[in-house]
TrEMBL record:
GO terms for molecular function: iron ion binding; oxidoreductase activity. It holds the Pfam family MoCoBD_2. Residues 2-229 form the Aldehyde oxidase/xanthine dehydrogenase second molybdopterin binding domain. PANTHER family: ALDEHYDE OXIDASE 1-RELATED, XANTHINE DEHYDROGENASE. This is Aldehyde oxidase and xanthine dehydrogenase, molybdopterin binding protein. Keywords: Molybdenum.
Length: 291
């Protein structure tokens, strides 16, 4: 079981992505891996699910914990490590060198009582632990990777009103190493949908005295399922990142290229050049000199 202090925010990065890392790190089948998230009473502190860091950072912590567990088990076997885990029937077997025993036989009495061998894995990024001095002098690196992508959008433009409809999108996304294809695809599709909202509909409107005038979803429009076009997703592997097994984060990267792709498609379709988001019908009409 993996215990982490973070929560699953709906993207699948915690449940699916971290489980995929554990499968590789421990060599156990997916059905033997359970992720217990928001376990703040048991798990070490972590700073949050943001910045496409979940799999990249927590995944490396899982790698570290798995390596420690396999080294500990090999030491208890008295054989050169790291230990190799496998499942036979309902029991986990541990092998190192020519020695092989059931996992339960390698646990201490306290561990058997708790039902687990407990190890803790931690990982810090390029700058190590966050230090106020590093932030002040500008040497703290708040990022670990550069992520590339190519996005393409096909649009239909109403020349009478300036309305834009995105017909289809394609996303070619750099992932470093693809850990969980299904979860990664869903992450990119969600990112493209968010990018379309940024491009076409989402705009916070403020009064002169600083009040938000459209705080609800009736006025602040995000794309509905019916407004999201077909999305083709292709992954590019090989440009390895700093995450587990060379993986890169996929939270924000699929969002960023979408408005640019839509703006270029708009210009190619009708010659309208706009540099302001969202590209509403009114702004497009002004760019077309209709208003």
């Amino acid at each position: 079981m993996i215990q982490i202090g973070e929560r699953e925010i709906g993207s699948g990065s915690v449940i699916a992505g971290l489980a995929a890392v554990a499968v590789r790190a421990l060599g156990l089948p997916r059905e033997r891996i359970r992720v217990e998230y928001q376990s703040t009473a048991e798990a070490p502190f972590d700073s949050g699910v943001f910045g496409s860091r979940t799999v990249a950072v927590l995944g490396r912590a899982i790698e570290a914990a798995a390596a420690e567990a396999r080294a500990t088990l090999a030491e208890r076997l008295g054989a050169p490590g790291p230990a190799i885990l496998s499942v036979e029937g309902n029991r986990i077997q541990v092998r190192a060198g020519d020695v092989r025993r059931p996992l339960i036989d390698l646990l201490t009495p306290d561990e058997r009582g708790a039902g687990a061998l407990v190890v803790v894995g931690k990982h810090y990024g390029r700058s190590g632990a966050i230090d106020e001095r590093l932030v002040r002098d500008g040497t703290f690196h708040g990022y670990t990777d550069f992520t590339g992508a190519v996005h393409v959008a096909e649009v239909a433009v109403d020349r009478a009103t300036g309305g834009i409809r995105v017909v289809r999108c394609a996303a070619f996304q750099d992932v470093g190493t693809l850990l969980d294809p299904s979860a990664a695809r869903a992450q990119v599709e969600g990112g493209v949908a968010m990018g379309l909202g940024t491009a076409l509909t989402e705009e916070a409107i403020w009064s002169e005295d600083g009040r938000l005038l459209n705080p609800g979803l009736l006025d602040y429009r995000i794309p509905t399922l019916g407004e999201v076009p077909p999305i083709e997703v292709e992954f590019v592997e090989g440009f390895l990142g700093a995450g587990p097994y060379g993986a890169k984060g996929l939270g924000e990267p699929p969002i960023v290229p979408v408005p640019a792709a839509v703006a270029i498609a708009l210009r190619e379709a009708c010659g309208a050049h706009t540099t302001e988001l969202p590209m509403t019908a009114e702004r497009t009409a002004r760019a077309l000199k209709l208003l």
